[in-house]
């Protein structure tokens, strides 16, 4: 049976843990900067036109590539979560303590906020694109959509990165994680926004 650890101040504020929080902050910042930046760039190039199929593909690919890089650069320091939902899943699985998980959340959300503030400054954008449920779709349907695609992401993380029996497949974990995020954005983007990541949604909503 999995034992969920509450954690201790000594462990959660050790030098290694502080490096992990900083790694999550930087990696999430870079991921959100590229992902949200791709949406801003699309709006600029199309004079704020509605998102069309080529634009959806471009945004999905940008998120997939950025997440692949973010997970890769942070994997050996913090585990490369970049996502409070992933951190929550790993807390439930006993891979990280509750206290450290909460500090991961803070680092991830701060990274997202800083990324959006930087984007707002460098692009002179009046507003940052946010996630929302599409017209004709109610909140319950949107929540179910996000639950399904977030489960797909967390399941992929467990299968390729967190499972101790993963063997050599762990080497392709960042690619698989990036691919599932890109695929889920293609599937859910026009309906629920395809977030899968509370930090990715939180940053734009604060700016």
TrEMBL record:
Subcellular location: Vacuole membrane
GO molecular function: water channel activity
Pfam families with a match to the protein in the record: MIP (PF00230)
Keywords assigned by UniProt, alphabetized: Membrane, Repeat, Transmembrane, Transmembrane helix, Transport, Vacuole
A Gene Ontology cellular-component term: plant-type vacuole membrane
Membrane-spanning ranges: 20-43, 55-78, 98-122, 143-161, 167-187
Topology relative to the membrane: Multi-pass membrane protein
Domain of life of the organism encoding this protein: Eukaryota
Family stated for the protein in its record: Belongs to the MIP/aquaporin (TC 1.A.8) family. TIP (TC 1.A.8.10) subfamily.
Stated name of the protein: AQUAPORIN-8
